[in-house]
Amino acid sequence: MESEPAHGAARGALRLALAAASFGLPVPAAEAGVVVHATRVVYPAARKEVTVDLRNEGAAPALVQAWIEADAERAPDRPAEVPFALGPAIFRLDPASGQSLRILYTGKPLPADRESVFWLNVLDIPPKAPANPDAPNRLDFAFRHRMKLFFRPAGLKGRPEQAAASVGWSLRNDAAGTVLVAVNPAPYHVSLVRIDLSGSGWSAAAAPVMLAPLSTTTIPLAKPVQTGAVRVRYAFVDDFGATREAEATAPGGTPAS
């Protein structure tokens, strides 16, 4: 799950906060009060609904807005059609109070031979401070929590916890340089949070990536490599949000001069 300042020009507000701090102006620390008790959501097709629990652990009430999108960068004022109903979509959450979000699949057809991925967003909007001309300058932040929502059809082959181990790896040189090729033969997504490569006297890292089901993904490397044996150590996130380790071997080798 990702948490970030959101709602409006959050990045600009953050720059203003840093500037204010550099001049000694009092700016309260940005802190999300609403906690989402999940890092990802798996929706088995056989379930009528799934729920996600929230709790306000802050000292003030919060206005919460929730929505589901197919595109991770889409804003709530530009909704896309998704095959889910979500409720409540907007509500007040008092301190030390909880609320469950109900997610229901509407039945719109999705691929039956693989998972589909969407994004659940929860926007935590703190109350606006009352106007006080004598009060020190302050900035109020809203926080957006984003997490993946996987729709999992019934009868998929294999087990989701075995998907990462089934990934095939290889190195390939092309006009753009050397790329790490990851082949995911499983019908499940594989979320890789770390990829480390090592050969004879050298090591390198590849960028984190999510491998789509039944797909081939190319991951550019920062420097070219020559042929030889390369060890690939990678970390992935399971259904429960835990990070697990795996290891494999790929054709490849020492960095080219």
UniProtKB/TrEMBL annotation:
GO terms for biological process: cell wall organization. SUPFAM superfamilies: PapD-like, Periplasmic chaperone C-domain. Residues 183-244 form the Pili assembly chaperone C-terminal domain. The keyword Signal applies. It is found in: Periplasm. GO terms for cellular component: outer membrane-bounded periplasmic space. InterPro entries: Ig-like_fold, PapD-like_sf, Periplasmic_pilus_chap, Pili_assmbl_chap_C_dom_sf, Pili_assmbl_chaperone_bac, Pili_assmbl_chaperone_C, Pili_assmbl_chaperone_CS, Pili_assmbl_chaperone_N. Pfam families: PapD_C, PapD_N. PANTHER family: FIMBRIAL CHAPERONE YADV-RELATED, PILUS ASSEMBLY CHAPERONE. Belongs to the periplasmic pilus chaperone family. This is Molecular chaperone. It comes from Novosphingobium flavum.
